[in-house]
């Protein structure tokens, strides 16, 4: 059963298209499986639509469409998949060994918002290097589960981390824990070993 959902503010940003695309892909993997967030999102979109409909009409400038298309073209070259990501659709690359019990499969390089997308695979009982965050980190569990020191995150649960939150996520017993993780800006590792391990992959 899904216990951890994205925060309301993250869901609102996602519904408005204001979230960096790679974070939205992590949310889409959760939303695809979560009835409760799907209902919340529909309600948000209806409210947003009603607010737009109540605004007074304004005349558009003649070149508005051309300028918008031009801006969108330069904004992002990351492709949004038509279907939400799943473990089967994502795990088609190569797992890179980064430390005992920890492997990484890059899914998308850093985009213009400084966000990258990775699959992180951790063996049961293994902890990720302790780290703080330079920006938003969103994670959706696609297999197994992990303990972030406070709570257990299981299949399709979402974890959000922001600067100031230091954690040492540890995979719990069972199959390898595989998470889809979007990170904006570099992580802030604690200690030399963590700096070495995370720095090597530009995390
Ligand atoms: Zn949800």
Offer a concise description of the structure.
This protein is α+β, with helices and mostly antiparallel strands and 203 residues long. It has 6 helices and 11 strands.
Topology, number of strands = 11
Structural class: alpha+beta
The stretches of 5 or more residues where confidence is low (pLDDT under 50) are none
Assess the beta-strand content as a share of residues.
15-25%
Could you tell me which ligands this complex binds, including any ions or cofactors?
zinc ion
Tell me the series of helices and strands, N- to C-terminal: HHHHHEEEEEEEEEEEH
| Gross morphology | globular
Radius of gyration, CA atoms, in whole angstroms: 19 Å
Helix percent reads 25-40%
Rounded mean pLDDT score? 87
User: Helical element count?
Assistant: 6
**Largest sheet, order of strands side by side?**
1-2-3-10-5-8
Largest sheet: 6 strands, antiparallel
Straight-line distance between termini: 30 Å
What labels describe this entry?
203 residues, alpha+beta, six-stranded antiparallel beta sheet, three-stranded antiparallel beta sheet, 6 helices, 11 strands, 31% helix, 25% strand, binds zinc ion
Layout: helices, strands, pairs:
Layout: H1 8-15, H2 21-31, H3 35-53, H4 64-75, H5 87-90, E1 96-99, E2 102-108, E3 115-122, E4 131-133, E5 137-143, E6 146-147, E7 152-153, E8 158-161, E9 170-171, E10 177-184, E11 187-189, H6 192-200
Antiparallel strand pairs: 1-2, 2-3, 3-10, 4-11, 5-8, 5-10, 6-7, 6-9
Zinc ion is lined by residues 2, 5, 30, 34, 36-37.
